[in-house]
Structure formats: C-alpha cells, structure tokens
Amino acid sequence: MRKLIVASNNEHKIKEIKQILREFPLEVLSLKEARINIDVEENGTTFMENAHIKASEIYKVVENSMVLADDSGLAVDILNGEPGVYSARYSGEHGNDKKNNEKLLSKLKGVEFSKRSGKFICAMELIIDKDKIINVQGEIKGYITEKEKGDNGFGYDPLFYVPEFNKTMAEMSEEEKNSISHRARALEKLKEELKKYL
To answer: Taking Cα atoms as reference points, which of 169, 189, 31, 173 lies closest to residue 122?
Structure first.
C-alpha cells in the first residue's frame, strides 16, 4: 500500500481527506503521523502556487511516498479577491479567526448584501512521483453575512452564507459541509484523476 502524506497537521482537514480517499489503496498520513517537522514558507501569489510550494518542499524529504498539499481561502468580489492567499493571516496574526472575521466585516461595513458575494477556493497539488503531478481546484460561491452565525466549522465559515442551503457554513452539519465544500469539490476532481494512476 502506497503512502500519501498530506502536507498539513490540521486534524479537521486530514479527517476529511482520509474519508474522501478511503476507496483507494493508500495509507493517508498527516505530517505529524509521518514524523515530519518542517515549516514551509508559503509566499506564492495564488492558492495553486502555495500548494505547489508546500507539496514540492515535503516531497524532497519523503522517499517513495506521494505528497498532497492544498491551499485555500476566501476571495470577496467587491474587495478585489481579498483576503485571498492572506486568508489565515488577514488581520496580521496567523490563524486568529476572530480578528480575521472582524477585519473582513469592517471592510464590508455599509455594503448591501447583494454586493457581498465571494467564494471559497481550494487548490490542490498531488505529487505521485517526479513525472506525475496532479493539480485541481474546487470552489463554492456564497455571500458574506453582516454578523457571525453558527458554531460549527472554523475560519470564515460563520460569515459565509450558501444560498442553496439557506445557512452559513458554520450552521451546516459536517455531512452537509463535506458534500459541498471547496475542499470536497477539489478532492472529487482529484479522485477522478487518481483513478488513472492507481
């Protein structure tokens, strides 16, 4: 069974990836599970560039393993795609969801709901070997609410309203979110590509 190392220690993300790729003969491991302790600087200008930087850096240190990296975030139309690749550190402090959400809300103050459209984007790169690399991207469109709603999820989920479900990502069950999220959509595309190789 081949090993697939996910360039992340985000438990929520690892669980989702293991679940979606369970039909393949792969042992899916987080960086921690693979005992890899590398901090990769993500200095790309797009989500795909960052996914590539992470995947290639980790691939250099693992032998005979596949490596999957993703980068994702929120792009708000009226803010010209902000926060974009800075989604996790929008407020200047990496991973502070509360401050990031506050900054986004203050930037959208006074903007009517119909103009608060945006999308979550997830770019993924899977290195099978040095000659075989798969790139996929998944997206989900929605609107930014005026205040946080819901206790599930993380990041911008409490502000991201999805019209088809009539609720924010943070108001959805894990099953609902995993069926439509940007990461789920990217992983579905990845599965189709993987079938050609496994």
So the answer is: 189
Q: Which residues are annotated as a binding site for Mg(2+)?
A: 41, 71
Bridge partners of 83, per DSSP, are: 75
CB burial class (10 A; 0-12, 13-18, 19+) of residue 158?
buried
Which residues partner with 3 through β-bridges?
27
Whole-structure pTM value: 0.92
DSSP 78: G
Give the pLDDT of residue 39.
86
Tens of pLDDT along 60-83?
999 789 999 999 999 999 999 999
Residues noted as catalytic = 71
What letter would DSSP give residue 180?
H
What total number of domains does the chain contain? 1
Q: Which domain holds residue 82?
A: 2-195
**In the predicted structure, residue 170 carries a pLDDT above the cut 90:** yes
Annotated binding site for substrate: 8-13, 72, 154-157, 177, 182-183
Say which CATH number the domain at 97 has: 3.90.950.10
Taking 90 as the threshold, does the pLDDT of residue 92 lie above it? Answer: yes
